[in-house]
Amino acid sequence: MDDFIKIVSLSDIRESKGITRKLEDDEIAVVRIGDDIRAFLNICPHQHTPLVDKYGGQIQGDELTCPMHGWTYNLKTGKCVNQSGKLKMLEVKVEDGEVYVRKIVNEFGW
Ligand code: FES
Q1: pLDDT values of the chain reduced to their tens digit, one per residue, 110 residues
Q2: What's the CA-to-centroid distance between 77 and ligand 1, angstroms?
């Protein structure tokens, strides 16, 4: 699948909580927004603390709020809606009930 990597089964993702998985040295968060699946590096750009799963970030609709200082991210774009940060998003494919991800690499890294 073009360097996409299987990361989690669709049935393991809890609505409005998300789940985290290791991918190489990174922790990836996978969340469900309705029928849409999004994945991103599980690090808040503000002070680099984890966002979802056992860390307690709140997902409401399309948005995730960091439990530390309240920066809120649009999970479709990765952009912070109340500050200037942006999550590192991954490409996502769903096939046969499995979620696959691929890092989006550009000249600045990913
Ligand atoms: S560490 Fe996330 S808002 Fe400060």
Answers
A1: 579 999 999 999 987 788 999 998 999 999 998 889 999 999 999 999 999 977 778 899 999 999 999 999 999 999 999 999 999 999 999 999 999 999 877 766 66
A2: 18
Q: Name 19's bridge partners.
A: 30
> Ligand 1 atom closest to Cα of 48?
1
User: Do β-strands 63-65 and 19-23 pair in parallel, antiparallel, or remain unpaired?
Assistant: unpaired
* Domains present along the chain, CATH in parentheses: 5-103 (2.102.10.10)
Measured CA to CA in angstroms, residue 72 lies from 10, 48, 68 at distances of 25, 14, 11
Closest CA to 26 of 13, 38, 41: 41
| Mutation choice for ligand 1 from 42, 46, 58, 84, CB with most ligand atoms inside 8 A | 46
Give the residue, out of 43, 52, 71, 81, with the most ligand 1 atoms within 8 A of its beta carbon, to mutate for a pocket test.
71
